[in-house]
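note to self — DONT lose this again. spent like an hour looking for the file last time. sequence + predicted structure for the chain T wanted, 97 res
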Amino acid sequence: MNIEGIEVLQAEPGRLNLSVAKLKGNASLAEKFQSRFAGIQGITRVEVNPEQGEVEMHYNKEEITSLRSMWDLKDAMSTFFPEVNAMQLAAYFGQYL
């Protein structure tokens, strides 16, 4: 499954690297993205490179898969990617967590 504009570059337990097209060249949006995702329980670190449009996200699997964290992730994803169905995003990322 692919989500247009979002690509998983690398995934390993506790870390996910993404390419997010809409963040490339948009420092303001990248800062908002980083702040929003860093506030989700279970995400331990978020680094966004707006020049490349890449995100490195570190997480604790036990916490990130809690109901609260999943709900917060859905809300954050809907904010930044309203054009994509939240369930599609959850299914796409769920295979890497």
